[in-house]
Every structure is written in structure tokens, then in C-alpha cells.
Specification:
The protein is globular and about 50 Å long. Helix 6 runs parallel beside helix 7. It has an eight-stranded parallel barrel with strand order 1-2-3-4-5-6-7-8, surrounded by seven helices. Helices cover 42% and strands 19% of the residues. The protein is of the alpha/beta class.
């Protein structure tokens, strides 16, 4: 499994030291969780922009940006200067915008996919636990990754939702049956037990936050997660 380490639960006072430890432990990516206080209740924009700027300045590990926001383009533009490897946006946010603006949902999603790809950045679609996984099927030929939320977005440290495992398996089967090349990433409540369930269901990458941030031995924890 590849590991994308969420920086959401890293203390500002210890950020530089912790970022070095996470990188030295072998994380594949830094994961930036951007919340606008509207799409989800929590707001992390200023902190995550600060962290993204610092990571660009001191670390060599690639970054991925997860936008839990209503105004997707605004935050894409904000984080593009940080040269992310991939930007994820929520399919639910696009649906909300289409309903508000009386536009076509598919067009909203495709416009944003194309906008991000034109900037030379990979595109991922994130999907909430309650959303039918079939909602992403029509977009799979145009994106790189599906980020399956295994908790409700908005806060770190939540318990893994077991019902999302079947969603991962359903998505993996569809990808394989249609000879697609999309990767599946999971986000939320990942630990030594849940990462195995996600891997067995078809996930190739996992976002890990508080489980790593609170680990007594980051190197051991990272190694065990990656080799689950």
C-alpha cells in the first residue's frame, strides 16, 4: 500500500520536525486537507496553506491536495502554486453547485477535471460515504484516482465506517471489468486493521492521519502500514 500522510492533526509548533519525521519514515505523499467551513463545518484553509507552503520549502515528498470546499476553482487556484501531484475535489460539491446555478452536473464536474488537467496536475474525485459509488463511473475515463471517504469528511480521528468496504470492492470490480486504470485511495479511520480490509477490497493507497501523528514509533507504524 502507498501511504499519503495527512497533516491535519500535526501541531503547528512541531510542524517542521514532524514533517521531517514523516518524510524520513517513507511516506509516499503529504496529504493536505482543505476545508472551507461551508462544504464541511470545520475550516482549515489558512493552516493547510501554511503547511503546504512549508512542505514545498523544506521537503521533497510529493503533495496531494484534498478539497472539501464548495467553491472548487477558488481553492484549486490557491494551491496550484504549491505544485501538487494531484488535486481531489468532491463530486457532492459539484452537484451542489449545479443545483445552485441551474447547470448540468456532469458539465460542472468535467469543466473542473479539464481545468485541473490543463495545469499539468492529476485529478481525483472524492466521494462521501453516503453517496452511491456509481456516481463516479461516468467520470472514470477522465480522472486518475477515486478517493473513497471511509468516514464523513470534516474532522480527523473518526472511526472507520465498515459499510464503505463493499463500496471499495464494487468500484474495484467496475474498474477491472471495464479495463480502466484508475487507482483507489481511501481516507478516514485507517489503522493496522482497517488498512488490510481496504487493501483486500481493492484500494492501492490510504490516507493516514491521527494514527501516524499519535504513533510512538512513526518508522515502525509507517512500515507496517505500507506492508499490510
Amino acid at each position: 500500500m502507498e501511504i499519503a500522510t495527512s497533516l491535519l492533526n500535526v501541531d503547528r509548533e512541531n510542524f517542521s520536525e514532524m514533517a521531517y519525521k514523516i518524510e524520513a519514515a517513507g511516506t509516499n505523499y503529504f496529504h493536505i486537507d482543505v476545508m472551507d467551513g461551508e462544504f464541511v463545518e470545520n475550516s482549515t484553509v489558512n493552516l493547510m496553506k501554511e503547511y503546504a507552503d512549508q512542505v514545498c520549502g523544506i521537503n521533497n515528498t510529493p503533495m496531494e491536495v484534498h478539497l472539501m470546499v464548495d467553491n472548487i476553482k477558488e481553492y484549486v487556484d490557491m494551491f496550484l502554486p504549491n505544485n501538487p501531484r494531484e488535486i481531489f475535489f468532491h463530486i457532492e460539491a459539484s452537484k451542489k453547485k449545479a443545483e445552485k446555478d441551474n447547470t448540468v452536473f456532469k458539465d460542472e464536474v468535467m469543466d473542473m477535471i479539464n481545468y485541473i488537467k490543463e495545469e499539468g496536475v492529476k485529478v481525483g474525485l472524492a466521494i462521501n460515504p453516503e453517496t452511491d459509488i456509481k456516481e463516479v463511473y461516468k467520470f472514470l475515463p477522465y480522472i486518475h484516482t477515486v478517493l473513497v471517504m471511509t468516514v464523513k469528511p470534516g474532522y480527523g480521528g473518526q472511526a472507520f465506517l465498515e459499510e464503505t468496504v463493499s463500496k471499495i470492492a464494487e468500484l474495484k470490480k467496475y474498474i477491472d471489468d471495464n479495463n480502466l486504470e484508475n487507482e483507489i485511495e481511501v481516507d478516514g479511520g485507517i489503522n493496522f486493521d482497517t488498512i488490510v480490509k481496504c487493501k483486500d477490497a481493492g484500494a492501492e493507497r490510504a490516507v493516514v492521519g491521527s494514527f501516524l501523528a499519535n504513533a510512538k514509533d512513526i518508522n515502525y507504524t509507517m512500515n507496517k502500514l505500507k506492508n499490510s
